[in-house]
Design goal:
Structural class: mainly alpha
CATH topology of the largest domain: Four Helix Bundle (Hemerythrin (Met), subunit A)
CATH class of the largest domain: Mainly Alpha
Order of helices and strands: HHHHHHHHEEH
Distance between the termini: 61 Å
Number of helices: 9
Strand order of the largest sheet: 1-2
CATH superfamily of the largest domain: CDP-alcohol phosphotransferase transmembrane (TM) domain
């Protein structure tokens, strides 16, 4: 009180208590304390945007993974593999539309940016591991050697994820290349065809001394194509990372 009276006598305006200043700033929407909130809302990162339709579609892929693994667990259950193929296609459709809807509606959120690549990688890893465990990744002449193609894809996904995390700490972004998108396309086609082949074991063609299942053969062929593209794109990402590891 004495300090306030002395300030008034000297002609200085007494300083308001901290709580009173903060209350006035909170009432003023143009004050500095509102800027972070307004900026986050303008980017679509507000808490109210977490349960947007794109995020719900992304979360639905993750929630559906146990069901997909369950349907793939019995390789001789043709009806189950048919249901798994339909579910896999539906998950692939949501993978396309969640990103498209988020960009077109301006509702790109941090949750979606975080979950979308994770959902994709978990789905791919789940299908590859279950198909390997049930002996689906086998073929004529080379037998189980097709598992190597699946292993290459899994190793690359883990390595690139770690590399992106490392570069993210250095504020370095690695954009997805066109070749990487082709890799993803081959990968999705191959896994879907392998599931369809187990659902339709009667869809065979006679190649003389060899009878092959059409979708299964397409799946194994495109799986190796995805593995080759995986190595090429993985090396591209690694070259970028090595420049920042000095």
């Amino acid at each position: 009180m004495g300090a306030t009276l002395n300030a008034v006598r000297r002609g200085h305006k007494p300083r308001k208590p901290f709580f009173a200043e903060w209350t006035e700033q909170a009432a003023d929407k143009n004050s500095a304390i509102h800027k972070p909130i307004l900026e986050s809302k303008n980017r679509g990162y507000g808490q109210g945007n977490m349960l947007t339709l794109p995020n719900i579609l992304t979360l639905s892929r993750i929630v559906a993974l146990p069901l997909l693994a369950f349907l793939l667990w019995w390789p001789r259950w043709e009806f189950g593999y048919g249901l798994a193929f339909g579910l896999y296609c539906l998950m692939g459709i949501t993978d396309y539309f969640d990103g498209y809807l988020a960009r077109s509606s301006g509702t790109v959120s941090k949750l979606g940016v975080f979950l979308d690549p994770i959902a994709d990688k978990i789905m791919v890893a789940t299908v590859i591991l279950v198909l390997t465990a049930q002996g689906i990744l086998t073929g004529p002449y080379v037998g189980d050697m097709h598992v190597i193609a699946g292993l290459i894809i899994l190793v690359r996904e883990i390595a690139v994820s770690g590399l992106r995390e490392f570069l993210g700490g250095l504020q370095v972004s690695v954009p997805v290349s066109r070749l990487a998108k082709w890799k993803t396309t081959f990968q999705m086609i191959s896994l879907g065809a392998l599931v369809l082949g187990a659902a339709m074991p009667w869809w065979n063609v006679d190649l003389g001394a060899l009878e092959v299942n059409v979708p299964h053969t397409v799946g194994l062929t495109t799986l190796w194509g995805a593995a080759v593209l995986t190595l090429i794109t993985g090396w591209d990402y690694l070259r970028v990372g090595l420049k920042h590891m000095d």
